[in-house]
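Please predict the structure of the following assembly.
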Amino acid sequence: MLKYLLLSIIPLSVFATDISECIHLLNRTSFGVDKKQLSVCLQSKNYKQAVKKILSHSTGIEDETAPLYAQKPSRPHKKFSKLNASERNAFQKIRRKEWAKLRALWFKKMLKTEDPFLEHMVLFWHNHFTSGLKKTKHPMVMYQQNMLFRKHAFGNYAKLLHAIVEDPAMLIYLDNRVNKKGHPNENLGREFLELFTMGEGNYSEKDIQELSRALTGYSLNRNLKFRFKKKLHDSGKKQIFGHEGNFDAHDMIDIILEQNATSRHIVKKLWYHYVSYDIDESELGRLSRLLKEQNYEIRPLLFAILTSKHFRDPAVRGTMIKSPIELTVGTLRTFGYKDFDPVLGVQYAKRLGQLLLDPPNVKGWKGGKNWIDANTLLLRKGFLSKLTRGDEMQKLRYDLFDLTQAGKTEEERVAKILLPINVYLTPSNNFKQTIRTILQHPLYQLK
Amino acid sequence: MNRRTLLKLIALQAAAFPLSLHASNALLQKRRHLILIELKGGNDGLNTVIPYQDPLYYKLRPSLAIENRDIHSLSNNIALHPSMVEFKEMFERDELALIQGVGYPNPNRSHFRSIEIWDTASSAQEYLDDGWLNTLNMPQSNSLKGVILGGEYGPLSGLSQGVIKIGSIKRFLQQSKQIKGRISLAGDNKALYHILHTEAEIRKGADLLKSSLDKSMELSHRFKKSTFGRQLEAATKLINSDTGIPFFKVSLGSFDTHTNQDSRHSSLLKQLSEGIATIRQNLVASGKWDDVLIMTYSEFGRRASQNANKGTDHGTAAPHFITGGMVKGGIYGNHPSLKNLDRNGDLVHSIDFRSIYHTIARKWVGVPSKHLHEFKQIGFL
């Protein structure tokens, strides 16, 4: 294998874009580094062209038929309260299986997709507009929400906001079905301002109350489709951020979108997700203005972020911790192991602290350093060592490493693709051992 | 970072984590231990410590009230749940302190937020980052500071050295074999530092656990083969083997009994009572019962009146238990009134949970605890 690898190496000069920069771009946006993506990046005229390509690839449109269990509400054959204990257990068992299938379906998409950046952004929105199966119960609504994120992944944030207040999963997750005229429930209103749009400290309790009134009546029918229940809606006068009128939720969203805090909040969130855990004030200002000028279009913002001097600064490489999904899906994609059992993949990511379609609470996964403690670090290393144990290594593909330049040591060539920072490794003369050593390296946890 | 600077950094880092050995506080000198038992999900206080003489209790809980004939009375007006026979025995031995009506002002009823308040000893309006045990000014030690055997880091969360979270000791030792534990500095890369630091913790913890378990003897009394039983067994073994680890955290639950509370609650309380009794038996046999303090805590109690699903919803104040060879047993504080509920129909607290923390920090750990000063100590130690 070693000989084969050395023979098939392509000379560096055919590539226009710097390989380390490509690795950085893919590590941050695309779950590991797969051969196809890396070739696309390397063959681009220059770095900006490469960013454009991975962004334009992502159309956000996908044709697929919903699986049967996500086509209708998940209900027993008669009223739940009429079931006896064993019928209940049986029903809940079936439903838990459906949950597991839905989680695995998404994991599989991430594993197999030719457009990993899209899945990465869907995961971003899932962590921004949180909802979860444990509360919403019906796979259908979580499936539909996931499709909504797909549709708008690189589209327009304003449109996404207007859609999310009519999204069944969200209306269940944040209790808006019981938000009624005269008996407001502020759960959705509060999180909408704190987490989804403006961020803490930029609004008052009164604003929450007024938005919650505007959200009354945004509910569901028996089939769990959105329904605006006029009788439950408070159509009276409301005030928010200096405006007054008989606003409904959509009117209020337009006002919220005018607030500078909103564009700043969303820029910050994307920056923390893609660049680093700090952002300087001038960059934040520049990008928030851009987002507003572009009427909240996400694609131009992402282009600006990924081509910013901060993102391109080599010092930023390897300063973020991979999420459990990035570690598991990313490693499997990097080694072309696309047939890995997605049910098992979901299980591993769960043990590492990230159960798909069930963030721990409405704030989403904390991320960053919180991903790693003594327990999860051991589990991460255990996952990586299982993948490279004995025969299991035959299921992995190594053709990705053909893309690196000749003339260096094997270790250096492999490490250059697998690790975010160049590092010196003692030569081992054993390819498999090299892979194992690099996967266990502390830097492999970083992106 | 290029290769040269990285190599230079590695050379610079040889002795990055100096370990000083000035053990001057009571807990380390006397090798005292604290076991925290988290009752996850919010334990229903009213069915744990039952005001069995109060007609209001039966009115609030038409189908959930515990029947009189099975309870273990502690006084003329309160009794323990029928499952807690071992607690009753410990109470009679004067080793069990019952602290009643524990809570805090402006109680929060969200699991997430309220446990954060308990974990960090904050007020309802304050947001703190570090667990309360982590803010105690402990001297550096070459031993581990704490082992989390169940649940989250909680009271030991935050940036500190020497706390590890493990599922099972055996698996932990096996997995940690692959960790080299090279301590190398990461320059100003905070993420890399965090990984390297965690690796060093694992190595240190594994070495320590291994050497102490090699010395450890078989337990004289067996624990139940449940998740909770295994956590307690691990803590007991580590205490028996002289590791000198001061803090252990275990967790039991979920106590979040919104529906059909009765049987689940009863089985959880049984596990709690039996489990603690088994720790006691083992530690009495090994002569360490006087060196151990055990306390329960939970994010909140539950609503005074039952709900429509034979369960109870999130509430506020609740009783908690403290036991150990040195504990002055008895009843502290009064049972919360069932007449004067707050406007949500919840029990009003009379003892701030931080009074318990303050007492433990001063009298058991033996260190000052600046931000707990304003909370009156309680006489259980």
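The longest strand of chain A covers residues 218-220. Residues 85-112 of chain A form the longest helix (28 residues).
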